Amino acid sequence: MAKLLTCEWDSNSVRLLATHVQGNNLAIDKMVEVAISKEPDPESALSPLESALATAAQSAGIRGQTDVVFVLRRAQTEMRLLTLPNIPADELPDTVRFQVAQEFNTADDGPIDFVVLGETNDNRIFVSVATVSPEMLADVIATTNMAELTSSSVVLSSFSIAHFLHSQNPTPQHRLIVDLLDGEIELTVAHNGMAQFARSVKLPESGVTTQRVLSEVRRTMASYSNQPTPGNIELATIVGTSTFHQELQDQLSLHLKIDIELYDPLDDCIVTSLENDETTAPEEPAQFTALIGAAFQIQIGQTSQLDFVNPRKPPAPASAIRQNSKYIIGGFVLLVLAAFLLIRPIVTTQSNIAELQTSLEDKTSIDKANKTLTDRLQQVRSFENSRVNWLDELVLVSNKFPPARQAMVDRFTAKTSTSNRSTEIRGQILLDVHLLNDDSLRMLETNLLTPAYTITGNGFRSDPENVAYPWTVVEHIRLISPPLQNKNDKNKSKADGESPTVNQKSEKDQSNSKPLQTTNAPVQTKVKEL
């Protein structure tokens, strides 16, 4: 009976799970949680984290060097959803690494793993990509080694929980998983057992409240609705069955128009022994769901979708022996051909015609292959040209924005265009702004209007509730490349003394539009990624 260890830690405690397979079910042998001391032990060479992990391993009955599967939380990694051309599988690792270097904040020399989620209608693919900093991975491996444990795999909790819930309670719906952890909330959107979107929200020192969780659930649903993956969230699963989890279920059911359910992971496991002393007993067994999911997936013989110790890599290059063998065979063929030409110096006309026909067929196949490569290169170039560096765009808009006494941004929304249409619109920006007066509006539109932008406003409307900024407008900025006017049109406009215009809604449309709700909350900024 082979045992499997899964482990994770946060800033407060270390959690260790010992399991084995019993029939078709996962049997839990030990579930250990050890608090991390805030002060180092002067009599020990181990750090507080290493000491807590060693204590947990000892409480689980581990003796000697043992393999362990380490589970990283969403907050410890960087995870994004990319849309890529539908290229061969052996080319994906290099393509993904190139995109990570362009768009991720984590150092590009860290481990990168990915999983293909599906295809779009325009023959592109969704790829969920995650990476972890080299320092984080090195710290995990070094800490486990100090506790006489070997990190055989380092997986992501979002995928482990999504796979486990789908295997126990399968559903075709898009499921939102709410996992309440110590000091943070992890929210994962899963479909068919695959994590498609994940957020981690740090909780204040005052603790978690049902209203705070409700707000974060709403933000997650809004963020996922703007992702390129098809489908809407129809089911929310709250991991845990405590009194607070039940209150949270009632609160979500009252305010959300989706199904809300509670889930206890121990209901789908065989618990053989949870006899721990008071120092290692878990306060909330539901927080072990990610460890249970990782153990279940490996124990049934499946590999984790993401593994930072064993990430997906491009095919290994041919060995030197194989390359030398090709040269030897090629040289031998050349010698045979030379001997043949010496023996048969006279070639008949019929042989020449046959050779010409063969050459013509080869040329056709080569032309076809070249066309395929050209089309593929064009797809990659088109994808790269459509990418928007939102940090640069944010700096540009900020530099051109009117002074704070004249304008205030209520909401900034940015969206990258994923379409291949010929309009050349690379992205769109929505600015929900409160203004001091109409001069502020003219300054805003004049400053922001550049050859790379087109601006459309929804109309200049008053907001009596806002005394400091009594006027409001929503500006729709489209990023175009190249500019819509060609060079001749631009020169003609300059010669005639014409100035670009900004589209505004008519007074009739303004009167029919609903006034925007103002708020003193911090500006909400959304960037929708590929």
What does this structure look like?
By secondary structure, this protein is of the alpha/beta class. It has two domains: 296 residues, Nucleotidyltransferase, domain 5, CATH 3.30.420.380; 139 residues, General secretion pathway protein M, EpsM (Gyrase A, domain 2), CATH 3.30.1360.100. The chain is built from 13 helices and 20 strands. The longest helix has 37 residues. The protein is flat. The two termini are 45 Å apart.
In round numbers, the mean pLDDT is 81
Distance between the first and last residues' Cα: 45 Å
Helical residues, percent? 25-40%
Helical stretch count? 13
Q: Any low-confidence stretches, pLDDT <50, length ≥5?
A: 483-530
Strand content: 25-35%
* Quaternary state of the chains: single chain
Shape call: flat
- State the major sheet: 6 strands, mixed
| Class by alpha and beta content | alpha/beta
* Main CATH class of the largest domain: Alpha Beta
The gyration radius over C-alpha positions equals 30 Å
Query: How many domain regions?
Result: 2
Strands side by side in the biggest sheet:
8-4-1-2-3-14
CATH topology-level name of the largest domain: Nucleotidyltransferase, domain 5
CATH architectural name of the largest domain: 2-Layer Sandwich
Number of strand segments: 20
State the main characteristics.
35% helix, 6-stranded mixed beta sheet, Gyrase A, domain 2, Nucleotidyltransferase, domain 5, alpha/beta, 13 helices, 530 residues, 2 domains
Quick structural gist:
This protein has 13 helices and 20 strands. By secondary structure, the protein is of the alpha/beta class. A six-stranded mixed β-sheet has the order 8-4-1-2-3-14, with helices on both faces.
